Structure formats: C-alpha cells, structure tokens
Amino acid sequence: MPTAGSKLGISRQHAQRQLGIDIRSGLHTGECEVLASGADVGGIAVHIGARVAAAAAPGEVLVSRTVKDLVAGSGLQFQDRGLRMLKGVPSKWRLFAAEDQFPHA
Hints:
This protein has helices spanning about 1-20, 45-55, 65-70; strands at about 25, 35, 40, 60-65, 80-85, 90-100.
C-alpha cells in the first residue's frame, strides 16, 4: 500500500498542478486505531502523516523514511529533505520528497 499511496499522491499533484492548484501531501504508514464512532481512525501514525503533510511545500509530496524504506524496489525516486521536527511527535524525522514521474504540462 505505501507504493500505491505514493503514486496516488504524485498523480494527484500532477492533475491539480494542471488546474493551477498546488497542494501539500504527506505520507506515513503505521498502526492506526478505529475510533469509537467507527467512522474515523486515529493514533500516532495518523498524527505523523498529518505532520508530514504540514511540512510539505506547496505542490510537494513528502514521505517519512518508513514509507521510503517500504517502497524500495518500486521504481519511485526520492529526494532527501533532511531531518525535521514534527509538532507533537518525539525526536526528529527524516523526510523525503517523492519525485514527480510525470511530464509537466
């Protein structure tokens, strides 16, 4: 699933760029908890994913090292964005920008 999520994030960025919209995307993977309502999920993995997205520049797809390591061999390319503090998350996290595999319009 991390490969599919990364490719979806990249293709979504490409489609929205053609509309003149730059969004921020972030991906992390880990254990999630189904909340009592049954209609939502929570947990530290969800929080980290939100913080990774918040760290992205407009038009950028950032992923955690966890995602990068899990998609090894997928053909996806990443550029190191360095260590970042993520609000509410212990320690620094190394983040990577998923490379755009699509030609720009």
